[in-house]
Specification:
Blueprint lengths: L7 E4 L2 E2 H4 L26 H7 L3 E11 H6 L9 H10 L3 E14 L3 E5 H4 L4 E5 L5 E10 L4 E6 L9 E2 L10 E6 L7 E12 L9 E4 L11 E3 L4 E11 L8 E5 H14 L5 E2 L2 E6 L2 E7 L4 H5 L6 E5 L2 E2 L3 H9 L6 E8 L2 E8 L1 E2 L7
């Protein structure tokens, strides 16, 4: 994604190693008329906060970083300059322990917690602080880089207060939301705002589908829950856009419908298996076209050809290359999908036995 001169895309966690570089990464989802009535926020959010806050946790991590890790965080334009070369010379070969902080929320009374992968994915040590003051060690049960979701479990606890999931697909632009977390290490913080937009693609991966929020989200909020006014989690705070690294009212959360699916797979398998067709696609004149195929891939074996237009998957219309990737990715490898293609002006439906998506493969 091309960087805009006055914007910094910042994962909303706090890391000492990357703090000097604005967090973890630089980037310099007849007769009767029914009238929907907007639901207003209550006079006070105190009852809602009292209900949900005990399920929100602070997460402290330590990790070992090397000089190569630090050098990798340098902006691209500095890497081949004298400053960049001197930086690599001084720090190459060095190792040190650094601290970071983020947020999470309890989804099971046994101590299972959801957070962001960029909070805990490289941690050597994880300590979770509960609202009752207890600090408990935790370990990672599973994580997914592509959606930035991780699941951890605390040790030595039971009967913990767990959240209730909501359905993000039922949320609408303009709905009130409450974000909770650990901004700048200030645990137990809540902010309120609305859903500003849905389906945001930030260019960070093929599965971007963020909810955009104007509830203030800051470094340290990463992995924290976003609640609707019924106290259900409809999103997980993940990224902010800011010229300073602090909130300017543009934050992004991973929709709960995505999170629950990923969490279920991580808990059952410890990893994510995504469906794969083995095609490269391009968008041309508002159509999704097959540009090339892996000759040993599922699509080629099923009879799909380069130049075919993808119309639908399992009857659902495909309008973009990302839509195709997402539609296939949710299919368990080994299962069959019905791919409707248009070839020489004629539509045909082709059953494809979906393969397993390689880590670096996009189609």
């Amino acid at each position: 994604m091309p960087a805009e001169a006055n914007k910094t895309w910042v994962p909303s966690s706090r890391s000492a190693r990357r703090g000097a570089l604005f967090g973890l990464a630089f980037l310099v989802t007849a007769g009767f008329t029914h009238v929907a009535s907007a639901r207003s926020a209550p006079e006070s959010l105190a009852p809602l906060v009292k209900k949900v806050l005990p399920s929100v946790v602070n997460i402290a991590v330590t990790e070992t970083v090397t000089g190569g890790d630090v050098a990798g965080d340098l902006p691209q334009e500095l890497r081949d300059t004298p400053l960049g070369r001197e930086f690599r010379r001084r720090f190459s070969g060095r190792k040190e322990q650094v601290a970071g902080a983020g947020s999470g929320f309890i989804i099971d009374p046994s101590g299972i917690i959801v957070t962001n992968n960029h909070v805990v994915g490289h941690a050597d040590k994880i300590v979770v602080s509960l609202t009752d003051g207890r600090q408990l060690p935790a370990q990672v049960l599973g994580h997914d880089d592509l959606t930035d979701i991780a699941v951890i479990k605390v040790q030595g606890a039971s009967s913990l207060p767990a959240i209730t999931w909501g359905e993000s697909r039922k949320a609408e632009v303009g709905d009130w939301v409450l974000a909770a977390g650990n901004p700048f290490g200030l645990g137990g913080s809540v902010t309120v705002g609305i859903i500003s937009a849905e389906g945001r693609d930030l260019g960070s991966g093929p599965f971007d589908n963020f909810l955009q929020l104007d509830a203030p989200i800051n470094p340290g909020n990463s992995g924290g829950p976003v609640f609707n006014m019924d106290g259900q989690v409809i999103g997980v705070s993940s990224v902010i856009v800011s010229p300073t690294g602090a909130s300017v009212g543009i934050g992004f959360a991973i929709p709960s419908d995505t999170v629950t699916r990923i969490v279920a797979q991580l808990l059952s398998k410890g990893t994510i298996e995504r469906g794969w067709l083995g095609v490269s696609v391009e968008e041309r004149d508002d159509a999704v076209m097959i540009a090339a195929l892996d000759r040993n891939g599922p699509a080629a074996r099923a009879g799909i050809r380069a130049g075919d237009q993808v119309v639908a998957v399992n009857g659902d219309k495909i309008e973009s290359s990302r839509g195709l990737i997402r539609a296939v990715a949710v299919v368990t490898p080994g299962n069959s999908v019905r791919v409707t293609i248009r070839r020489q002006g004629r539509d045909m439906e082709i059953p494809v036995n979906v393969g397993r998506r390689p880590n670096e493969q996009a189609g």
